[in-house]
Design goal:
Layout: H1 2-29, H2 39-52, H3 55-58, H4 68-81, H5 83-86, H6 95-99, H7 110-113, H8 117-126, H9 145-156
Helix pairs in contact: 4-9, 8-9
Amino acid sequence: MRKLLQVFGALFLVTALAVAGAGIAFLRSGISARRRPSALETLVAQRLRRLAIPASARAARNPVPVTPEALREARLHFADHCASCHGNDGSGNTSLGKNLYPPAPDMRQAATQNLTDGELYYIIRNGIRFTGMPAWGEEEKESDPETWKLVHFVRHLPRLTEAEI
């Protein structure tokens, strides 16, 4: 029992120090969105995002077959609705994407590609609070084939050809 109290005490102390450090950093830089999020802020945000996505959503499988036609439809939809922040290539390297806080991610990288299909679907449909990522699609729909096609396209981003861009 004493050992357990020591562990909880140490965890509390580490947490309190991290919160105090974040508070000091916040007070120094204010609420400006010009600075890149710190490594700690990024880590906390990723952990919170993971916790905020229900396990059933994380485990969801893409019911839409990946076909050239599905990828083409998703690419056109992405170019129309997503590219202003994420870029046609998914890099996030746009005026809008770079100036969001946090900046739009490079979706070709592991941080996005390692998410499950269900997580990607959930993020597209429900957005992410306190970021520039809005919720898309109709809330009352249980499943949306267009969004599932976008999930396939996000998976395809690292292999985009110049012609597709």
